[in-house]
Amino acid sequence: MNWNLIGHEPAVRLLKEHIKQGNLRQAYLLTGPQGIGKRTLALRIVQAVNCQQPAGDGEPCYQCRSCQQIERMQHPDLSIIQAEQVAGSLKVDQIRDLQRSLSLAPYEANYRAGILLRFEEASAGAANALLKTLEEPPARVILILTAENSELLLPTIVSRCEVIRLRPASIEQAAQGLQQHWGIAPEQAQLLAHISGGRVGYALQLYQSPEQMEQRQIWLDDLHRLLTAGRVERFAYASRLSSDKNYKETLQAVLPVWISLWRDVLLVAAGASTPVTNLDRRDEIEAAAGRLGIEGARCAIQALERTLHLLSRNVNARLSLEVLMLDLPVL
Length: 331
Hints:
Rossmann fold, 5 strands
């Protein structure tokens, strides 16, 4: 059994071996892109060590009270903390509350567990506060951190964790899993597998939130229109995006969608065999590849990635977007 996960077989084998040998680490760091299944794997670890009726070493039953509560993230011995919003900040007070909880003996489970999601968003104070727990962890406690990349964390944090790097499933594996486990129609499963790049969690998020798929279409339509628009219309669009109340969150969502399309253009222009992400935009991708070629696609990707980097450094959003609008190619 693979803990009811699509992909991640090496990670599951390693973790089961730790449990079987009684060699469970007190801190794990799960890394990988958004939507790849880090939170789900973290919950599976907690279920595996706290299941009341395990089917075998490290094999939770998913049916007992403990497994069900952990699945719903409502177990009394499970604490889950994260920044209040994406691109926010996980604060030191949240770490201190967690430490107080972990200092208590388990209420009913074998282990108390703390799951710290998106730990790259932890403030410096929060990261330093957690170090004390990592250096002297309480007995019968397991900590599981998640982050997109271990390089975004303090080296002292990373060195005290067992790092498990997660990779996307293949497009075919993801599509088959979406059909078999969730009954998604083959054509839609293929599209979701491509859009998510094999990140099953992200694919399910899109499937369960049709408004997200609709928003993706709107953003790609916007990009298509901007490529034939003049400077005035481009600057007006930049102004609208940057004046949005939640502009940071919006930009961190829209720019990667645009990058994914330009990477598809680059792949097609280069004649690569790698599957495109935006399968439903194949005609647009091929037209742009024919008009702009490899160099045009590469410049667009660089401009978008540079803008994302600047926004992460709190550079003026409107100015950054206006520069981007000037750098995007014209069709």
